[in-house]
Amino acid sequence: MFDRVTGHYDRMNRLMTLGRHAAWCRDVAVSASVPAGGNMLDAATGTGVIALAALEKYPDSTVYAVDFSQRMPAEAASRPGASAIVWQYADANDLPFGDESFDAVIHGYLLRNVDDAERVLEKQYRVPKPGGRVVILETRPPRGPLRYPVALGVRVPIRLLGQIVAGDRRSYGYLQRSTLGFTTPQEVATILRRVGFASITWKKKFPGTRMIISARKQ
Ligand SMILES: C[S@@+](CC[C@H](N)C(=O)[O-])C[C@H]1O[C@@H](n2cnc3c(N)ncnc32)[C@H](O)[C@@H]1O
């Protein structure tokens, strides 16, 4: 599915988030707190927006960007600045890196697309250095008194834009369901704690439908 949406992915993302996606990617990069000359892994890079934001924030660092889609990173690799990033094919369930390889692991919209988020986070715990961070950008279901109007505001535009802009109702139907169907920051924090991470914090974004969660490897 991600191979199929590649051509429209960035435009759709800009429209669906009213242009906020790039700012959230920069926020993820800042939260990664990578030391001078450090390195980081973007674990589901897609079209590379987070990896490129990370390199811009830490120009003397090494950024590895992996994905299991073939087309998404191929598109990303042709962008300005992309030649400084190490692009690689990898499944987040089986990261081909040694223990304690990175100062930070970052990702956007990975967890809601995997079968077992706990397993993926367990695998991720292995690759940061002690004290290194994992920073996660994800969707979260709207809560509180505005949850129904906000859910409607997600459902209708995503389906319409998917149909009109991307001509791909099926993929964007999935996106809309997974956006509203993923879990709360509290539940992600519980999983992070279970797999060993500490110092877990989160910020809510975009009337309660996005979150940025940060945690530290002990
Ligand atoms: C919604 S896109 C997000 C892309 C990018 N991180 C962003 O914020 O725009 C989700 C990406 O996760 C990738 N993905 C999903 N499951 C994966 C897995 N098990 N291993 C590696 N990549 C995966 C998909 O191929 C896709 O590129």
From TrEMBL:
Gene Ontology terms for molecular function: methyltransferase activity
Source organism superkingdom: Bacteria
By what name is this protein known? 2-phytyl-1,4-naphtoquinone methyltransferase
Provide the alphabetized UniProt keywords. Answer: Methyltransferase, S-adenosyl-L-methionine, Transferase
Q: Give any Pfam family that matches.
A: Ubie_methyltran
One of the GO biological process terms: methylation
Which InterPro entries does the entry link to? SAM-dependent_MTases_sf, UbiE/COQ5_MeTrFase
